[in-house]
Specification:
36% helix, two-stranded antiparallel sheet, 256 residues, alpha/beta
């Protein structure tokens, strides 16, 4: 299915739900430990326990809306059950400024409507739509603590790529199925305008010696001797790029 859209055989209507499906429908096919490690490592704030098995994962369940501001039902994007705790993930289409405190209240209330006898610890993950990356106090529902975590799509993609690279470095054929799943998820992110980016601080220093300029030999008949070409370069000083430099350099990119 990903190849159908990625190779432009069809047009994908990119929405919040399609992004959720492409990301987590892919992740759920991975071994539970790998899926969970990717999710845990993506978190900006908060922390999830380590698990070796996921009992259930559900998408867009319709929960009892009694006591909420919803009329018919409450629909969390993703609901995950493990033996010791449960997780609600509320996803937004973009990385910033979309999460809703009222929606969070409704989902936690509806969870307790559905699972009144559950004594499990509940985690609530805000995925995307963040107003800030600051930790928040845990939510109290009728004196029951709910642990809030934050992440965004960029962080999740970064975690996916990191785990892919870790598998790739092992160079073992038994991991090829997992790598193919991760490759499809990465393509799905690209379809939703989330791309793998190599930042300046990730780039390695490149050294150029005089032998590198042999490619300029085509200028021999145009009075451009080797020395003439190289002398201006010899006067160049090393340039250091700091955070201050990049802040000034990309001043135009700040939001208005």
């Amino acid at each position: 299915m990903i190849s159908h859209f990625y190779l432009r055989k069809g047009k994908l209507e990119t929405k919040e739900d399609s992004l959720v499906s492409i990301a987590f429908d892919g992740l759920k096919y991975l071994p539970d430990e790998l899926f969970w490690s990717i999710l845990r490592d993506s978190l900006i704030t908060g922390n999830l326990p380590i698990v070796t098995a996921i009992s259930e994962i559900h998408f867009w369940q319709r929960w009892n809306a009694a006591g909420t501001t919803n009329i018919n039902f409450v629909e969390p994007d993703i609901y995950i059950r493990t033996d010791n705790f449960d997780v609600i993930i509320e996803a937004k289409r973009w990385d910033k400024n979309q999460q809703s405190q009222n929606q969070k209240n409704n989902q936690i209330k509806a969870y307790h409507n559905e699972f009144q006898d559950s004594k499990k610890l509940l985690f609530y993950i805000e995925l995307g739509g963040l107003y800030n990356n600051s930790p928040v106090s845990n939510y109290l529902f009728e004196n029951i603590e709910v642990i809030t975590c934050k992440t965004n799509w960029t962080q999740l993609l970064t975690s996916i790529i990191t785990h892919y690279q870790n598998l790739d470095r092992l160079n073992l054929k038994l991991f090829n199925p997992q790598k193919r799943i991760l490759e499809d998820i990465i393509k799905g992110f690209e379809l939703h305008q989330f791309y793998t980016i190599k930042w300046l601080f990730d780039l390695k220093n490149q050294k150029i010696d005089s032998h590198s300029f042999n490619f300029l030999k085509f200028t021999a008949n145009y009075n451009c001797k080797r020395e003439r070409l190289l002398s201006p370069l010899k006067n160049l000083s090393s340039i250091s790029i700091t955070n201050t430099t990049t802040n000034n350099l990309f001043e135009y990119a700040k939001p208005t």
